[in-house]
Amino acid sequence: MTAAVPLLPPADWRDFLALTKPRVMTLVVFTGLCGMLAAPAVDGRGIDPVIGFTAILCIALAAGAAGALNQWYEADIDALMRRTAKRPLPDGRMDRQSALHFGVGLGAFSVILMGLAVNLVSAAILATSILFYVLVYTVWLKRRTPQNIVIGGAAGAFPPLIGWAAATGSVALLPLLLFLLVFLWTPPHFWALALFVKTDYANAGVPMLPVVAGERVTRRQIGLYTIPMAIVAVAPWPLGLTGWFYGAVSIAMTAAFAWMAVVVATRRQQPDDAMKPEKLLFKFSILYLFGMFGALVVDRWVLA
Q1: Biggest CA pair distance of the chain
Q2: What is the reported pTM?
Q3: Whether residue 155 is found in the same domain as residue 291
Q4: Is residue 1 exposed (0-12), middle (13-18) or buried (19+ Cβ within 10 Å)?
Q5: All residues at 6 or more sequence positions from 233 whose CB lies less than 8 Å from its CB, including other chains
Q6: DSSP-assigned states of every residue in 158-179
Q7: Number of neighbouring beta carbons within 10 Å of residue 224
Q8: Domain span holding position 298
Q9: Alpha-carbon separation of residue 204 from 80, 81, 116 (angstroms)
Q10: Does residue 228 share a domain with residue 155?
């Protein structure tokens, strides 16, 4: 006789919400919205509010789908990390099949709705962003290479392109620079986090840079990646794609980011030291992206 498999209780709606990684989704939705608002009017008219809302809803649903599929695939390593052990799957509050069906259904619905209600260009980029995050980053890169977050960072950089494409049906230089900004911002952001949770990654066997190459290399890479990020961040202003307000904010906030990155890059960590500079850089990096994209919208709508 085979042993009976214990049945899990039905998952609570809060568990499905947790699968979508709502805190991560906030930044994704915000950058997508700013990309849409920064786009020029087509035929003298801005995007219809209903279509705009639908596009943002699709971006949110797609981000949630990617988060759910990520947790479905990584349930085993999530259980080994203190930071993620209380997620619905490793904590036993949901079965993996439910998470898989939820993620696939949510992702398919978001892409179909975007294509039918907005336009095919934005739907194609949205589909690419989901597939890139799930297949390229989660399945292929994360467990295999310390460069996982470098290449995989492109997944989180798509929302400004999607928002712009939703408003215009096309892609231009400014949203491409916004894509590059998020792409180059991702390694310093995540490596700052990885420095103070590297034990978690080591326990789970995830080859994050601090685990396989050490803190010194990671700190140096944070400093090196900040250089092209800073150039891309300020570039829209001298290129004439934004006004003086974005230029001033980008210079001030990027200078602050760079200063924190230099502190982290040149610091020699002692065994008993608290990781205060690293935590400060990580927290500021989130504020930085909100500030940069917010300045873009103010520049476009208030001071234009």
Answers
A1: 75
A2: 0.92
A3: no
A4: exposed
A5: 181, 250, 253, 254, 292
A6: -HHHHHHHHHHSS--HHHHHHH
A7: 14
A8: 172-304
A9: 5, 6, 41
A10: no
Does residue 206 form part of some domain?
A: yes
Helix/strand/coil for 42: strand
Q: Which residues pair with 42 in a beta bridge?
A: 45
> Which of 140, 170, 200 is where one domain is finished?
170
Of 114, 137, 170, which residue sits at a domain end?
Answer: 170
Structure tokens at 123: 């739907």
CA gyration radius, the chain: 20
The structural domain count of the chain equals 2
128 lies in the same domain as 86: yes
Cβ(100)–Cβ(72) under 8 Å? yes
Q: Give the pLDDT confidence of 175-228 residue by residue, as tens digits.
A: 999 999 999 999 999 999 999 888 888 888 888 999 999 999 999 999 999 999
Query: How far is residue 85's CA from residue 214's CA, in Å, rounded to a whole number?
Result: 24
Q: What is the pLDDT of residues 14-27, one digit of tens each?
A: 889 999 999 889 99
In a domain, 7, yes or no: no
